[in-house]
Design goal:
It is found in: Endoplasmic reticulum lumen. By secondary structure, the chain is α/β, with parallel strands linked by helices. Helix content is 41%, strand content 14%. The chain has 48 helices and 34 strands. Strands 1, 16, 17, 18, 21, 23 and 25 form a 7-stranded mixed sheet that branches. Strands 28-27-26-29-32-31-33 form a 7-stranded mixed sheet, sandwiched between helices. A 5-stranded mixed sheet has the order 3-5-4-6-7. α13 (288-303) packs antiparallel against α14. It is globular. The two termini are 45 Å apart. Residues 1-31, 127-133, 274-283, 446-456, 906-911, 950-982 and 1282-1306 have low confidence and may be disordered.
């Protein structure tokens, strides 16, 4: 599992070479000796110019004044554009910027460059537009793959380029349902009703500004809120009451209703009646919904619309007053409401009118037609919905107001441009322009195509129906497909892929054969569709819907084929021949091949029915049926959004090298189907930047290549972090792909600070890295040359987000590189390894906050408990360390799995999953979105139970609680399957060495050789002052290879345990840029997730701290239920009063009497910390404060002190942390730990202070250094191993023999 591909980066830093003639070149480009060389060797012009640019880029920068920085971005653009190799020049400048900035600032600026950049920035902001540069190579690879596919289809090269340059039309979410009909019952009319006559009719008032939330009362039907509802549902009746309430409050909106009966529609579809309402008369008893609709229509016609709406309101009132548990109104509620509504308006008894209406067919037919109208629109699946000028929404009042506010700017825009005036019917205009006749969210919703799979005119849209011949749903889909063709389509064709989920009977196999021969030979015949439709209907009624006992014989089906063929004037002999030569086995094999094809190419299981339209795969839902109207809607949407622009390009192609006989409409239709299917798989936004509007004469890099299928347009700030990456990627693409390019340079104007302060190399693996003769790998590697000698440098890696990379070879301290200290050493080398990938995800619970504290475990099938974590409240985020392979993600045993289960994709009522299979098959990691649901009966249970709640609970036995169960299952696993056994062996070792008692867990972090030296001293001081077992936890991210080599031997020699832990900084959390601040953040931000869930408590001890007491005393201390315990800063050193910032200003007011604590030593009660979501709270505070550069100056210390009102801190006794700067010598004798904290007054280096302040420090240092030298095979200078007396007596002598770390610290 763990033997997987790893990436090695080799970084070299070379001493600068002596170069001549640099100073004479800084003032301009024309150096006489280069000109002479170019004249003598004209064939080497490009190489000479590249050498010139290289020399110009090699000067070391001095401090620049602000006025020298002002035009630096424009000067950079000019240098790049005028270079012989612009891409190389851009790369050399932004990757060696500190060395070339001086030369750039002296360049004379051409005003035309500055003017063009300024003009472009009026259309595009001065920042890089090309984001996500890591995906640029993937996009190019995708384009090349498409170009290759199109070439195989004989598409000309010029057309391929045009296709790839063409963006899909934006997928508008303004899909309006055209509901205009007589079945809409409007309550009001703002233009005609008397109640609105005092409103103004000036339409321009809609453009006038108003206060937020204020409505515009204009006498114009601008907003049409039409509710589609079933009046026998609580949702429908409550919507009516809401409409009446808003109407009475003069909301400037036109309200209307479209009523339907869900039960009638269900019966109609079961009986195959579809749009024929009359056929259902007298078959069954009238349902409540149809009764209400019938009476509503009667009251509207007889007494007016408002009375009809009042009737519905009365039905709802009587329903709510009844004691019935069912929300559905009963017949007596409807009758009583009818009587109550019309009683004041009639002379004859209302009961008589009811009896008379029961026999009246006209209103029944109108009721049924209204229901079938809703069915035809496809809105019955939504139960209750709102149509706001045809846009579909939920039916709540809040949604109504939001829909009105969303529609307002669209109307304002139309009024502003004069498209809507006082005479315009707004509803007719909107629905005529973008209305559709049917709504199906499956079709309208954005959907990417999955892998893709005869008439006279070109048919740009191709429907393929995957039909299971043995299922009712499959035959119904086939029937609707035939009806779709009968109804007629100008721009689409339809094909059928028959399959079978079970053994089909002979009539089914015969149907497939007859269908195949008929469509292949007689598709041009006029009556062929009627033949197929009647044959399909016969098969459905007699063999699918009928029981197996009642099913007709095979001969009956054969006779029906003959009868229908004869009736539709099809050659009877052909069908008799089909029957005589029919082979059931051949047809079964054909069906099996289709099933395998659908599974392998599309992942469709056997028996699945699907509609594949130009590569887009859809599955007809379980609710209702997929009708011919849906196929018409699908045709319209696909043609408009994905096919039209492709068809226009393909139809203009001048086909060459193609047999004229092949150039048929079928060939062109096939090409459009293949191309549109392939284009739909592109992971690309339909929104494209308008690069053509930008000027590119003086500030752009243009590289032409007519023969390339790929063209790259980019807007890049060359002096930006993204520009550093992009320049390298563009050079690689130019070398291997040779695309045409148009790179518009877009630097920041009027700079006041250096935009780049680092040297940078972007490492891109290429084929050159791999040997052609053997298995050796030569790279990838980064090479740094001509680096400054006297500046302290730090080497950082900028790696893809899912990568965890660590150094495996680094002789020198990569955190503190001071080249002048290397002596005669010519190179500094570091090798890095891709240690693991990060699996990340987000966990959600429907209609609830993310389930914070939910515990997840990850492992293999044989060992499911390899890694664990918990879900943060922050976005439900979680993360685990993995390697490529197959993993199983589960809810942890205990309270998490007792309360929750994974929700399966799709319907939440399906069987709940016990685990999720996750495959890591590349180096990009994976983001997993989990949805969990509470188990039945656990809906009110809380996941996290506070200790106080536990003590007061009535449960029997505290061992059943989460806090105790947690340690039973979780003990001993975090990233290593053998850790539990290791713990057992460690316990035996402790007993042998005389150590006993509960293990003390110590957590620390160090970076750089100096602090690793301190860390070893801290380890020894802890170990020597206790008789209990000790386990150290170190953050792996920043440890050097030498430390990781030494620590296992040190643990074995001294008898302590250790664990290397890591956590990848989440991408959504504001990231620090300085390495020291990142290290500070790791001390506090991830305490709840970086340790295994089995760990109860841990003590953080700074690396530069020396312990003088038994840490077991601190480990066992009662911190009164607080998640954190810190030591307050000392206040007895009066010399430091002026530096105690927490005693004045903001901090004094914020703390309100609470102490300000030091972060060098603290206890974390991990159980309480996780239980109270302290980690989530700290991250929220951090995210808020860290974006302000003036906040969190001491991040690891300021954050917990600032948050202590929410995350309470227990104050430890003062003797647990002493430091000379703040405490003074009076209390030093009682100190249990001594911290080498910085002295803001003297700024004394820590090495010098350590030898002076801590008497035992020298001996501990000597012991640690001798042990390290023994393990690494190094020699220790005896002069460096001074005795305690010597260190105290002659500090001056010691300073003569200082270490390299001391010098770099200074």
């Amino acid at each position: 599992m763990h033997d997987f591909f790893f990436l090695v980066l080799v970084v070299w830093v070379c001493l600068p070479l002596i170069r001549n003639c640099l100073m004479q070149m800084e003032s301009g480009h024309n150096s006489s000796w280069l000109i002479k060389m170019e004249e003598r060797k004209p064939e080497l012009t490009s190489e000479i110019m590249a050498f010139r640019d290289y020399l110009l880029s090699s000067t070391i920068s001095d401090t620049l004044d602000v006025w020298e920085l002002k035009d630096l971005g424009h000067q950079t653009a000019q240098r790049i554009v005028h270079a012989s190799d612009p891409l190389q020049s851009m790369q050399e400048i932004n990757q060696n910027f500190p060395s070339v900035v001086s030369s750039l600032s002296r360049m004379k600026l051409d005003d035309s460059v500055k003017d063009e950049i300024t003009a472009n920035q009026r259309m595009i902001p001065p920042k890089q537009v090309l984001n996500g540069s890591e995906w640029l190579v993937d996009m190019v690879q995708q384009e090349l793959s498409l170009a290759d596919q199109f070439s195989k289809l004989k598409v000309p090269h010029s057309t391929i380029r045009k296709l790839l340059l063409t963006a899909s039309p934006p997928e508008s979410n303004m899909i309006r349902v055209d509901f205009r009909s007589s079945h809409v019952h409007y309550l009001n009319n703002l233009e005609e009703d008397a109640m609105y006559k005092r409103w103004r009719n000036n339409l321009n008032e809609i453009l006038m500004p108003v206060f937020p939330g204020q409505l515009r009362y204009i006498r114009k039907n601008l907003f049409h809120a039409v509710y589609v509802l079933d009046p026998a549902t609580s949702c429908g009746l409550e919507s009516v009451d809401m409409i009446l309430s808003l109407y009475e409050n003069n909301l400037p909106m036109r309200f209307g209703l479209i009523l339907y009966s869900s039960k009638f529609i269900k019966k109609a579809t079961i009986h195959g009646l579809h749009l024929s309402a009359k056929d259902n008369d007298g078959e069954t008893e009238e349902d409540i919904s149809s009764l209400i609709i019938r009476l509503f229509i009667y009251i509207k016609e007889s007494y007016g619309t408002q009375t009809a709406f009042q009737f519905l309101s009365n039905v709802n009132r009587l329903r709510m007053l009844s004691d019935s548990a069912d929300d559905v109104p009963e017949t007596h509620h409807v009758d009583e409401a009818f009587v109550e509504t019309i009683l004041p308006k009639v002379k004859s008894p209302p009961q008589d009118i009811l009896l008379k209406l029961a026999k009246e067919q006209t209103y029944k037919e109108l009721s049924q037609e209204s229901s079938m109208f809703v069915f035809k629109l496809g809105l019955n699946k939504l139960q209750c919905c709102l149509l706001m000028n045809g846009l579909v929404f939920d039916s709540s009042e809040e949604v109504l107001m939001n829909a009105m506010n969303d529609e307002l700017p669209r109307i304002q825009e139309q009024v502003y441009y004069g498209h809507i005036n006082s005479h315009t019917d707004v509803l007719d205009k909107f629905l005529s322009e973008s209305g559709i006749s049917r709504y199906n969210p499956q079709i309208i919703a954005e959907g990417k195509a999955k892998p893709r799979i005869s008439v006279d005119d070109v048919k740009p849209v191709t429907h393929l129906l995957a039909v299971d011949i043995t299922s009712k749903k499959g035959i119904n889909l086939l029937h609707e497909g035939i009806r779709y063709l009968v109804e007629g389509s100008k721009g689409a064709r339809l094909g059928v892929l028959f399959s079978s989920s079970q053994d089909s009977d002979l009539p089914g196999l015969l149907l497939v054969k007859v269908f195949e021969i008929t469509t292949a030979s007689y598709s041009h015949k006029k009556n062929v569709l009627y033949f197929l439709e009647h044959l399909c209907s016969f098969y459905e009624q007699k063999y699918i819907l009928a029981s197996s006992v009642a099913a007709e014989s095979t001969q009956t089906f054969i006779d029906k084929v003959y009868d229908l063929a004869d009736a539709n004037e099809l050659p009877l002999k052909v069908y008799k021949s089909i029957v005589s030569e029919f082979s059931a086995d051949k047809v079964k094999k054909q069906l099996n091949k289709v099933s395998q094809f659908l599974y392998l190419l599309l992942g469709l299981e056997s028996g699945v029915n699907a509609v594949i339209t130009n590569g887009r795969v859809m599955f007809p839902g379980d609710e209702g049926t997929f009708l011919s109207h849906d196929l018409h809607l699908l045709e319209t949407m696909e043609f408009k959004q994905r096919v039209k622009h492709i068809g226009e390009i393909i139809e203009e192609v001048q086909w060459q090298d193609l047999d004229p006989d092949m150039l048929t409409s079928k060939f062109v239709s096939d090409i459009i189907m293949y191309v549109s299917s392939a284009m739909a798989t592109r992971e690309r936004s339909s929104e494209s930047a308008r690069f053509e509007v930008l000027n590119a004469e003086h500030s752009a890099v243009i590289i032409d290549n007519e023969n390339s299928s790929v063209h790259i347009d980019a807007v890049v700030d060359p002096l930006s972090a993204t520009g550093q990456k992009v320049s390298s990627l563009l050079r690689v693409l130019r070398k291997y792909v040779q695309p045409s390019m148009r790179i518009v340079l877009n630097p920041m104007s009027s700079l006041v600070d250096l935009p780049l302060k680092n040297y940078y190399r972007y490492v891109v693996p290429t084929m050159d890295d791999f040997s052609s003769t053997d298995l050796t790998v030569n790279g990838p590697k980064a090479f740094f040359a001509n680096m400054p000698l006297s500046k302290t440098l730090t080497m950082n890696l900028d790696v893809p987000e899912p990568w965890l990379v660590e150094p495996v070879i680094a002789v020198h301290d990569v955190d503190n590189i001071l080249l002048e200290n290397l002596g005669d050493t010519r190179t500094l080398q570091a090798v890095f390894e891709l240690e693991a990938l990060v699996l990340t995800g987000h966990c959600s619970e429907k209609d609830h906050e993310p389930p914070r504290g939910l515990q997840l475990i990850l492992g293999t099938k044989n060992n499911p408990h390899l890694v664990d974590t918990l879900v943060m409240a922050n976005l439900g985020y979680w993360q685990m360390k993995v390697s490529p392979g197959v993993w199983y993600l589960q809810l942890a045993p205990g309270r998490s799995s007792e309360l929750y289960a994974f929700k399966e994709d799709g319907d939440g009522n399906q069987e709940k999953l016990l685990s999720k299979l996750i495959t890591i098959n590349d180096l990009r990691g994976k983001v997993v979105h989990l949805e969990v649901v509470k188990k039945k009966g656990m809906e009110r249970e809380k996941l996290l139970i506070s200790i106080d709640d536990e003590n007061n609970s009535q449960r029997k036995g505290t061992h059943d609680s989460w806090n105790s169960n947690l340690f039973k299952w979780a003990s001993g696993f975090i990233g290593s399957s053998g850790l539990s056994k290791k713990n057992e062996s460690a316990l035996m070792e402790h007993e042998k060495s005389g150590r006993h008692g509960k293990t003390i867990n110590i957590f620390s972090i160090a970076s750089g050789h100096l602090y690793e030296r301190f860390l070893k001293i801290m380890i020894l001081s802890v170990w020597k002052n206790t008789q209990r077992p000790v386990k150290f936890w170190f953050i792996k991210n920043y440890l050097s290879p030498q430390f990781k080599d030494v620590i296992p031997h040190m643990a074995q020699e001294y008898g302590f345990e250790y664990e290397l832990i890591t956590y990848k900084w989440p991408s959504w959390l504001h990231k620090q840029t300085e390495k020291q601040r990142i290290i500070w953040a790791y001390k506090i931000l991830f305490l709840d997730v970086i340790f295994p869930l089995s760990l109860e408590r841990v003590i953080f001890v700074d690396a530069d701290q020396v312990v003088r007491a038994d840490m077991g005393e601190l480990y066992d201390m009662d911190i009164k239920g607080r998640p954190l315990a810190y030591t307050p800063f000392c206040d007895n050193n009066r010399d430091m009063d002026g530096y105690r910032f927490w005693s004045q200003g903001f901090w004094k007011e914020h703390l309100r009497g609470r102490p300000y604590h030091i972060s060098a030593l603290y206890i974390v009660d991990l159980v309480k910390f996780r239980e109270t979501a302290a980690g989530d709270n700290l991250r929220v505070f951090y995210e808020t404060l860290s974006k302000d550069p003036n906040s969190l100056a001491n991040l690891d210390q300021d954050l917990p002190n600032y948050a202590q009102h929410t995350v309470p801190i227990f104050s430890l006794p003062q003797e647990w942390l002493w430091c000379e700067s703040w405490c003074g010598n009076a209390t030093k004798s009682r100190a249990k730990t001594i911290d080498l904290c910085n002295n803001p007054m003297t700024k004394e280096p820590k090495l010098q202070g350590a030898k002076r302040i801590v008497s035992e420090w020298v001996n501990l240092d000597s012991e640690a250094r001798q042990f390290t030298a023994k393990i690494l095979g190094d020699e220790v200078n005896p002069q460096e191993l001074v005795s305690p007396n010597q260190s105290q007596d002659s500090p001056a002598d010691n300073s003569l023999e200082e270490d390299v770390e001391f010098k770099s610290e200074l």
